Amino acid sequence: MNQYKAFRAQSFPQCRKLLAFEHTESGDDGVVIGLNFFSEYEASEFKEHLDRRHAQERKSNGTRQPGGIPVVMSSG
C-alpha cells in the first residue's frame, strides 16, 4: 500500500506560499512536512493538482467508511 496516499495538503491564508502535510501511522507520533514555494501561484497550482489527484484516487478506488461500506462521491 502506498503510504503517501493519505497525505493531504493544507494551505494557510496568512502564508499562501506554504503547504503543510501531516502524516501519522499506528504507533508513530506523526510527521509534519512543509513546502515553501517561490510564489502563491506555484503553491496554489500544486495544491490544486494534489487535490485533483486525491479526488481521482477516491473515485477510482471508492472511498470506504470504517464499516467497509463504499461511499460514492458526486460531482455536483
Topology (SSEs and partners):
Layout: E1 9-12, E2 15-23, E3 31-36, H1 40-61, E4 63-64, E5 70-71
Antiparallel strand pairs: 1-2, 2-3, 4-5
Structure in a nutshell:
The chain is an alpha+beta fold and 76 residues long. The chain contains one helix and five strands, in the order βββαββ.
Tell me about this structure:
With about 80 residues, this protein is α+β, with helices and mostly antiparallel strands. About 30% of the residues lie in helices and about 30% in strands. The strands form 2 sheets. A 3-stranded antiparallel beta sheet has the order 1-2-3, with helices on one face. The longest helix has 22 residues, at about 40-60. The N and C termini lie far apart (about 30 Å). About 5% of the residues are buried. Mean pLDDT is about 75; it is low at about 65-75.
Q: Tell me the helix content.
A: 25-40%
Q: Got a strand count?
A: 5
| Neighbour order of strands in the largest sheet | 1-2-3
For the terminal residues, how far apart are their CA atoms? Answer: 30 Å
Low-confidence stretches: 67-74
Order of helices and strands: EEEHEE
Instruction: Note the overall shape.
Output: flat
Main beta sheet strand tally, sense and closure: 3 strands, antiparallel
Number of helices, where a helix is a run of at least 4 consecutive DSSP H or I residues: 1
User: Roughly what fraction of the amino acids lie in strands?
Assistant: 25-35%
